[in-house]
Amino acid sequence: MLIFITILVIGISLINTISIIYFKFNLESSILKEINCYKKIFEYDPYFTPPPYILINKITAINKDYEVVGKVKDYFIFLKKDYKKQKLKSFASTLFIWEAIIVISLIFVMYATIINFIKKEEENINFLEFLILSITHKIGNFLAIQKLNIEILKLKYPEEKAVNRIEENYRFIEKDFKITLESIQNLKKTQKKKLINFKDIVEQTVKNFEDVLKNKKLNLRLKDCYLKISEIDAENIVFNLIENSVKYSQKSITIKICCTSKYFYLIIKNDISEQKEGTGIGLEIVRYLLEKNNGKLYTKAKKNYITVVKIKK
Fold first, then answer.
1. What's the whole-model pTM score?
2. Strand order in 217-221's β-sheet?
């Protein structure tokens, strides 16, 4: 940016110097032509009144502010000394104003371009960090589940139940990984925002947890609510929140969708199981995606755990 401004200022300064020299040369030439015209006019009409910056008089030193530039008959032609300076000053001022507008406009465009480039780079870095965080989170879940299954086997639970539990958890993690892999595959694609019905996203996501929700009461209070957002972001937001509620609920889960003219709301409420809390990485992923889409995440844990997503339309 500094190099660009320096080159621009030096270049314009050179152009200004050449322009002013050229203008001064043309001005002097124009004044000589003008004076010759007044000479001819004065020869035919001695009572001719010249412009204020020119005097025609017999006196050789009429005023310190004027200089002799010609003679016609017995009369001397005087030119006001400040006339050239005023013309040069007027030209330079006009030139400076227009060039200042051009320079400021170019600097603004350059600045906006650089800032836009930096923001895109930051978004790419943040998205890469988000993917790494997401993969780490999911691998951590998988290892935690497998550790639990090993403990179950160590305690010599019936083999059939242990195998079924391993299979059930495997399916759960497999579905989880599919969404992450889709995000990685779509990394190079332009994630265009489009109108998406969140009711469809929630219903489709809930189907992924049918096996886990068999022993839990699910209350869906959904209505059609459209929001302009990237489909991948919407799926990740809903999946991570529902996964979180399914994982840490005991018996019941309530999912509600509502919207106003300005905001979209997704509310998830579940009772709290006795198992230990997670790392919270899933919620951090959701927060990142919501910030990217003008949204916020609110959580509250008392008797029940309540999660509220608020996105500006």
1. 0.53
2. 217-221, 252-259, 263-271, 304-312, 295-301
